[in-house]
Amino acid sequence: MMKKGILLVNLGSPDSPEPKDVKKYLDEFLMDERVIDLPTWARTILVKGIILNTRPKASAKAYKKIWWEQGSPLIVLSERLQEKVQAKVNYPVALAMRYGSMTLKNGIQELVDKGCTAIKTIPLYPQFAMATTETIDVKVDDIVAEYFPQVTITKTPAFYNREDYINVLSNSIAERLEGLDYEHILFSYHGVPERHIRKSDITNGNCKMNGKCCFKMGSKQHEFCYRHQCEITTVNVAKKLGLKNDTYSTTFQSRLGFDPWLKPYTDRTIERMGKEGTKKMAIVTPAFVSDCLETLEEIAMEGEEIFHEVGGKEFTVIPCLNERDDFAQVLANMIEEWAALDETVAV
User: Do the domain assignments include residue 289?
Assistant: First the structure.
């Protein structure tokens, strides 16, 4: 008899918006070999020799703009979501972060202390990426092997194409845009280097990075292709909302360094469309389920500023799913589907 537990996992956050805490957080985050996938020596020079000597103050300033009285928005919203999911299922639900003080080890320990020996991890990322889902899965495996050998882990695949998730995402967009006169909806996803897509290609070269193979359904590599999963999320939502082809587009934000990242870039697209005469734009960020620095500051502040500077008038930011009750139900559905696979498990 194995008792089941659930571990929700999000990205993480500095403990405070002060430079020293931001520096500590960025050190852990950027030294992850699946985030900056350079040889250790090169990553160390880049991160510890350059980035950590220049970026923490600027990042701290950005965090201060979006920090809530209760703490980091991402942490607060994740905790609210955890509470809602817990209320919907009869299994212990813990919350952890990949980076920061809310560690994966502590999250697993919390469930083990409640008697759980079968744990389902749910990375709070609808689309798979090497720098998000994969780094969580690998870190969990390492922690379990070292500290919790009695625990069995079940990993959760990307849920970008679940019908209930698409319904909730579509509803969140429709609710925000109801009654608004907008010209274009931008679906902005977090960017990754193009090489990450190739490294995740389990077919060893079938990925063409040409913008066409992403839409060929049934390809084996799509199980781990971030670009495909982003593009198909947009397609499915647009279909659900009945959007016309020229009224929406997919872009990618937050790039670092000089290597090619997924295109088109969000900031440049906002600038271009504003210059071309678009006056009313809406933007949604489906790679994030919780509002955070990248949505509240980079998009809602910097993005709007860019749009207004080039002549845009109305810039509508659609919130992430956050602690929506219907999104909590999607996660509860995933949990119940997993639990139903083994009816002998104790509660």
Answer: yes
